[in-house]
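Re: [ENG-882] Designed sequences occasionally contain unexpected residues at chain ends

Forwarding the minimal case from QA. Structure tokens:
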């Protein structure tokens, strides 16, 4: 009997602590403020609700009207930055709190702001310039990370053959909304080109322009030994003529013309236009196989600027 009573009490106790649904909405958020409003963005902040079960806040906006509010976002923070706005429009805001049971408070007080255009935008960052000799057609890849501003309209791309130049129309290549450009406009081999990028906002204000970044497209290294379609009886050296401007190089040996790389040997001390002999005594190649070799030239990173023709040779160590 005592065991039955204890079990019965235990079951009733579990029933009592089972959580009930909460149908009570939270209080409306207070202290909604505009802490910044310029250059096409509005910054909002408010005091966090004190209820322990607040999931987050719903942000509502009306444009040039105090009554036509629409939902724009949900945030778990007590601040929000609204961007990509028009400079000459007035934006009205209200927010509501939401708890984990889905209950939504009434609206907060209303605030308004006009994000007029005041400051010029920031420069783009991480400007990268990479030249390459694409089968005799030199081209230069120009890319950058966008400026941090919310109101960017486009970018101006400038190019000059001298490092110190002012941002004048004579150096302006084009205007682009993208942050990538492939320059094929009268690129000369071995000529260094300096690029600068300017951010332009929707109001026409411009950044000061990035620092110049440069590169040049190399002529192609010339393979000298082993000759194309030849047979050799020992692996002692690979000889090539370097490009006509400073570069680093890489010997590439493959088992087929387009793939199957088995050796990559970096070369850092080949002078421009010099004949360079790479000692290859320590390179092992299986005998009686046809191999393919080429030289890649680099001016930066590990992306080839130019690549030689591909030559083949047959390795026959038994032939004198």
């Amino acid at each position: 009997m005592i065991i039955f009573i204890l079990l019965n009490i235990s079951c009733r106790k579990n029933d009592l602590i089972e959580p009930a649904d909460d149908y009570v909405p939270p209080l409306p958020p207070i202290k909604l403020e505009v802490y910044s409003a310029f250059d096409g963005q509005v910054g909002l902040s408010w005091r966090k609700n004190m209820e322990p079960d607040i999931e987050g806040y719903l942000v509502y906006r009306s444009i040039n009207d105090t009554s036509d509010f629409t939902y724009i976002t949900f945030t778990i923070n007590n601040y929000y930055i609204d961007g990509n706005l028009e400079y000459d429009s007035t934006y009205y805001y209200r927010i509501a709190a939401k708890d984990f049971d889905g209950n939504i408070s009434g609206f907060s007080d209303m605030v308004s702001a006009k994000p007029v255009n005041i400051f010029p935008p920031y420069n783009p960052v991480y400007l990268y310039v990479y030249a390459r000799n694409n089968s005799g057609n030199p081209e230069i890849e120009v890319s950058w990370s966008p400026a941090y501003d919310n109101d960017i309209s486009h970018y101006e791309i400038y190019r000059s053959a001298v490092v110190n130049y002012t941002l004048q129309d004579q150096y302006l290549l084009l205007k682009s909304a993208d942050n990538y450009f492939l320059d094929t406009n009268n690129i000369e081999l071995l000529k260094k080109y300096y690029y600068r990028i300017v951010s332009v906002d929707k109001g026409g204000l411009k950044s000061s322009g990035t620092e110049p970044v440069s590169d040049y497209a190399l002529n192609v290294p010339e393979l000298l030994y082993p000759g194309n379609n030849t047979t050799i009886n020992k692996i002692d050296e690979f000889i090539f003529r370097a490009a006509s401007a400073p570069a680093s190089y890489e010997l590439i040996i493959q088992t087929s013309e387009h793939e199957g790389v088995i050796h990559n040997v970096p070369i850092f001390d080949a002078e421009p236009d010099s004949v360079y002999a790479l000692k290859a005594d320590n390179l092992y190649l299986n005998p009686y196989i046809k191999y393919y070799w080429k030289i890649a030239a680099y001016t930066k990173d590990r992306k080839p600027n130019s690549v030689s023709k591909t030559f083949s040779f047959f390795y026959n160590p038994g032939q004198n």
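QA comment: On inspection the terminal residues look reasonable. Confidence is low (pLDDT under 50) at residues 1-13. Proposing we downgrade this to a documentation issue.
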